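Prompt: May I have another protein with tokenized structure?
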Amino acid sequence: MSNLITTSGSAPAVSIINGRIIDPANQIDQLTDIHIENGKIIALGENPEHFQNQQIIDAKHYIVCPGLVDLRVRGNIHSETKAAVAGGITSVCYPPDTNPVIDNTAMVKLMRLKAQTEGHAKVFTLSALTQQLRGEKLSEMRTLKDAGCVGTSNASHPVKNTLVMRRALEYAASHDIIVFIQAFDPWLSDGCIHEGKISTRLGLTGIPVSAETIAISRDLQLIELTGARAHFCQISSAKAIQLIQQAQAEGLPVTADVAIHHLHLTEMDIAYFDSNCHVFPPLRTQRDRDKLQLAVKSGIINSIVSDHQPLSSDAKLAPFAETEAGISGVETLLPLALKMVDEQDMSLSEVISRLTIQPAGILNIAEGTLSIGSDADICIFDPEYYWQVDKNNFVSEGKNTPFHGWELKGKVIYTIKSGEVIFSTE
């Protein structure tokens, strides 16, 4: 049985023993112990002198790694960070399309207050790139950065005016603010699935790959012009990967992530109008999926996200084209990512890197590591545990998942934040 644990506010001295420690940030992969005091990691290996543990966690046969860092989570902070820690995630990043929009310091402070009083995981926020995400007037990005935002984005609202996008990138570059871009051409994106044979057969309006690549091409040229650091979110196609790979080879400061469902699902999974497969950007071809997996392995795509969007059951009950796009993904992020070990012959360290230190590096936050002195944010999981996904057992308020009934391998046993066990299945 899974147990979410109310923290006491004072972290005990803890020793995690007999576990396989995997910390890609420090290139560690070994059987050893880890010791925690006052919420911080103080030693690996033998007990430090004068250290007296108050709690011992036996991690024999388990993997001990940094708490996961998820770059894209939406929903109620209380319920969805509770779901996040059940999935081993200790840090989440919220895009600015909350209600109200994160385009003023009062909203940043409100998000911080909610995170402190209601959150189970650490919550980081992106500021709105433009006021009210309308793509017309720039937000006060520097002020919002000073208030605590770790980057800026227009979320899923396109900046149609190229001059406005140029000015936004120039502003961000002048203050060393990373811009998160979900690139799509709005005039080509008025559909609900990938444009191809399946969309024709099902009679659904398709979204071509060019909707993504045209927007990426424009923004890459503006990035080259302005020198801004940019991160492309939820890449979905092989052609998009080619553009980003070329930009990286030319030295442009760009990174990219992929949603976990794009690594395992294709347009074929829509089958008989399964609305749980309605996502944006849409699921594409098997070739696209395979290229995305290879891009994660090679490091062109250096972060895997849940793109967690919890929805009510009603949101998925209409005809496919009228349903809301989104998947409840934080509780299946880790085991689905671990499938890459078998399917793409990636090492556990490589996969964990895409879930920890690499996304933390994109946000420039001190997370995703087991370094001495860092916060003891830790995920302990059983890599050989087989379990069947049951949406009815989700902690999240959103039960909208296409993975219901799938058998997955890899189960979170403990989640520790700042030295305290906040989730346990034991």
Remarks:
- Residues 238 and 287 are 7 Å apart (CA to CA).
- The domain at 68-363 is CATH 3.20.20.140 (TIM Barrel).
